[in-house]
Amino acid sequence: NAIKFSHPGGSIAISAQPDREARIVLVLEDSGVGMPEAVVKTLFEFDQISSRRGTLGEPGTGFGMPIAAKLIQSYGGTIAVVSREVTADAPGLTRFEIRLRGEIAEEGVRAAAA
Prior knowledge:
By secondary structure, this protein is α+β, with helices and mostly antiparallel strands. It has helices at 37-42, 64-74, and strands at residues 12-18, 23-30, 78-84, 93-105, 108-111.
């Protein structure tokens, strides 16, 4: 979705780090078009329509985010989103934060098996 809702040349940042509660925090942030508040409020709900076309006209079903949230929750994780729609005065911004149970291994951060 970060690619779908960003313009060519836009920025997308992805990071992973541990938190104090032995969880892995994944952050995905883009400078795309953002989402209206009404879409943000119902983004993870299967019974709400959140499908929109991408910046290059790509179609969507509206099922991707509810499915992703359900999978994350089934592994004991959480997902949250903050978004600001692009305006003439400010760029858009969408930031997803996913928290998963995890562990820190010598080779880096990895998700723990459920």
